[in-house]
Amino acid sequence: MIGEKEQEIAGRDLEIIEGEFIRIRQSSVRNVEGGHVDMEQVCAFSMDGDKIEATQAAAVMLSGNDVTMNQSMSLVAAGNNTKFKYSCVPLSLSRENATVKKSAAGIIAAGNVKAENSAAVFVLARNIEGNLNTLLDWKSAAAFGAVFGGVWGLLTLLKRR
Asked: Which has the minimum average pLDDT: 20-29, 31-40, 130-139?
């Protein structure tokens, strides 16, 4: 475990990092907790910070107030404001704004979504601006859920006999 106010790390394999200002380059980390986390070419399991900036990085979970990803991938990205540019995020949760530019997402849940030439499977938001291609809108998601529920119920009844 490493803990300091300001640190710069490059080319290392680490377990846990804590600090106020953290800059990580070409490393792998299990867990990062800090105020401002800047990472480039990093593989991480979990990152938690006030402001997270990821460039060419991969992470399982990113959570923070402001999350910015550029050419990166994260399974779950959660924050008040999230920005994705040329990135892939299967699950994005934003309390306020989500900005998606030339990226792909599975599910986006946000107050406001601004998109530019992006794609998502399902988007749940108050306002959506820009060019965002979705696989399911709310009507098709409701229809899919009704059909899936009906088939599941029918199979459950047939299984009892």
From this structure: 130-139
CA distance 38 to 17: 13
Quote the CA–CA distance of 79 and 95 in Å, as a whole number.
6
104-136 β-sheet, strand order: 2-10, 13-55, 58-70, 73-85, 88-101, 104-136
Residue 27 in contact with residue 42, Cβ under 8 Å? yes
Nearest Cα neighbor of 92 from 80, 78, 112, 74 is 78
Distance CA 87, CA 104 (A): 6
CA distances from 123 to 34, 63, 108, 119, 136 (A): 30, 19, 5, 10, 8
Long-range contacts of range 106-110, CB-CB < 8 Å, 24 or more positions apart?
A: 110/82
pLDDT category at 134 given cuts 50, 70, 90 is confident
Pick the closest to residue 103 from 66, 77, 126, 79 (CA basis): 77
